[in-house]
């Protein structure tokens, strides 16, 4: 299939719309960075478990404690 037509659009937002567009882009960037941090934390945890010579250090409890101590995982509050 060959495309023979192309269209170019330009935005001309008002001042209020500019602010909304910037907030939307900023929120998207925050979400992307959050997801990237989760992926990196999972990969580093997997790498740490792969190279651990002890059988007990590959468990999820020990691995989570090590990652949490490094600050790689967010701390979750429990209800009292």
UniProtKB/TrEMBL annotation:
Entry-linked InterPro entries: Transposase_put_HTH (IPR021027)
Transposase putative helix-turn-helix domain residues: 1-46
Domain of life according to the entry: Bacteria
Name this protein carries in UniProt: Helix-turn-helix domain-containing protein
Organism of provenance: Streptomyces sp. R41
UniProt lineage: Bacteria, Bacillati, Actinomycetota, Actinomycetes, Kitasatosporales
